[in-house]
Every structure is written in C-alpha cells, then in structure tokens.
What does this fold into?
Amino acid sequence: MRSLRAAPDEPVTAVVYATKGLVDVVAAEVTELVPARIVERTDRFLLVRLTPAQLADLGARARTVDDVRLLVAGPAPVTGAGDLQRLGAVAADAVEARLGASEEPWSVTLAARNPPWRRRPRWEPAPVLAATLHGADAAATARRPVDLRLQVDGEQAHLAVNLWERPLGKADGPAWRGALRPTVAAALVRIALGAAGPAARAAGLYDPFCGSGTIVAEAARAGLAVQASDRAPEAVALTRERLAALGVPDPQVFVRDVLRGPDQRVSARIVVGNLPWGTQQPVDGRIALFDAVAHLVAQRVAGDGAAALLTTHEEALVARLRRHGLAVTARRIGLLGQTPAVVTAHPA
Ligand SMILES: C[S@@+](CC[C@H](N)C(=O)[O-])C[C@H]1O[C@@H](n2cnc3c(N)ncnc32)[C@H](O)[C@@H]1O
It folds into this structure.
C-alpha cells in the first residue's frame, strides 16, 4: 500500500467496493478482518473508518473486496457542474495532503448510475474533472499512478483515490472461458460456509465445474480441503496446477461430466460451482444438466452440508433443488453486465 500522511492511530475513511448483490458478504469479511466501523453501506460500497495500519491489513487479507480506496471528497450532493467542481477541488487538496504532490497527470474512472449530467439541462462532467483533477481524462482507459474513482448514484457523489497499483480484486488466474472474478468466488465460498455445519466444513468443498479453479483456490486459501472436477481435461490440468502453486499437496482434481451422475471419489459435503453460462451450454442440455446438478447436490449436502451455485437460469435450478427436499434461497448479483443468481441450498 502507498504510504499515507496520517498519524498511525488517526482514523481515515476508506471506500470498500463490492460486487452488486454481495455487499453483506463483503461487510461480514471486513468486520471479521479489522475491527472497523462501517459508517455507510450502499449496494456497491461501504464507507469504513479505520487506522492506516488496519487499512493496510484489510488490503492485504480481504478476498471478497473488489477494491479499497481512500475517500478524498464527499459523499455530497452534486446537481450541477459547480458542485462537481467543488468536490474535485476538495479531492485534489486531500490527495496532496495525504499522498504528497505529484507532477504526473492523474486518471479518473467514472462509475455513474442515473447521474445529474444526463438530466436536462445536460452538461459534461469530463472538462470539470480534467480542470480540477490534474488533467485527468475521464475517457482514458489506462490508470495513472494517482487514479481517482468518481462514484455517482443520482445526486450523491464521492471521490476516492487508489492506494494500490491495481484494483485488489483483479483477476490473477489463468485465462479460461467463463473464469470467475476471484472476489465473487471468495464470496460464494463464504455463502456456502455460512449455510453449512461443522462436520461438512471439516469434510471440505467440491466444485464440479471447476474451469480454471478460481473457486477451489479461494476455498483452499480459506483453509478448506478441496476437490474439483470438470469435463474438460485442460481445465482439470489448470486447476491442479493452480492448487499445487498454492501449496495444496496432491490436489484432488479429475475429469468428470456432471451428466454422468455423482462421482464416487467425492467426499466433500459443501458444493460450490459456477454453472456453464449462456452460450457455453446448449439449451437442450441445460435441463438435463440442472437435473444432474440437483441430484449431485442433494446427495452431497445430506446432513449439515450446503451448496452455493452461480447460474443465469435460477428458476429451473431452484425448482429442481426443492424437489429434492432442500431449503433453497436465491440472490441476484451484478456481473459482466448480467444479473446471474447465487442459489444456496441445504437440507430443510
Ligand atoms: C463458467 S465455467 C466455470 C469457470 C470457473 N469457475 C473458473 O473460474 O474458471 C463452467 C465450466 O463447466 C464446464 N462444464 C460444462 N458442462 C459440463 C458438464 N456437463 N460437466 C462438467 N463440467 C462441465 C466447462 O468446461 C467450464 O469449465
């Protein structure tokens, strides 16, 4: 983390960004890692008061968090260009006070939902941001060493500055079609763990659609025994390598088509998976796949086990899991411009 000009015990405000629909899971991890005070919670971020040392610790250890930044202006109402200019000026002063002066141009990312500049009379935020934030270009895609994020929701806005070179939750795994964002994988693991009992936790976690192994990598980091399979041998090889690199001895990863039914080698009682999405799986096969997944889950979670499954077709999956007598809940999340659901199931 960049060093901050603040006394070690002087609290600062951090913005913790979460995937939409997972903010409660992120808040639970944050409070578990640092005794921080969450002063505001929206569906996309938390504002957290904590010391610089706690901030560094949070950045080093959090797994479900998409990014952590230092709040430098707002949240404040912004209705016109004048308000945005004032917010930008406050941010520029705060960045220089906390991080020191920088000669290089800055960058700025806009995350705006229903922003005031799209209402009549329309106005352009880019020139205001460039003028107040060291020439920052709102249309540029490259991040500068000093990178600000303007978060706008209706008339509420804040500006926050990066403290790490790249967003904390940025994918770092092997390239694989359909690879999951690691922070979402970590959240799925936490959701399933929260629904499972101690015996199931001790028996470990299984991902039957492992792809590049993002979910089992997060589970292994959380200290769980893991098992994984995929019908694609290349995926199995990637996952095995990824687990070995994390220090998992003799990773249990094998080729298996879920349509063939539960695999005798699996002993884990927590099932977490990211089901094939959209065009990856022909529609004809999807119903058969959901039948097979529901059967596998019901068999594995008996007792105190639990499952968390990410799918773009939750209704069909929920109905099938309920037919097996499982208690099922679903929540939508925002991912890659889509709204897949996390379906959680455990014995009723
Ligand atoms: C959305 S991807 C999972 C991505 C993984 N979570 C990751 O981060 O890389 C779905 C995976 O399911 C696998 N798959 C599709 N149909 C399957 C089936 N019938 N049985 C087992 N695996 C299957 C695909 O090979 C693909 O790797």
In short: The two ends are 45 Å apart (CA to CA).
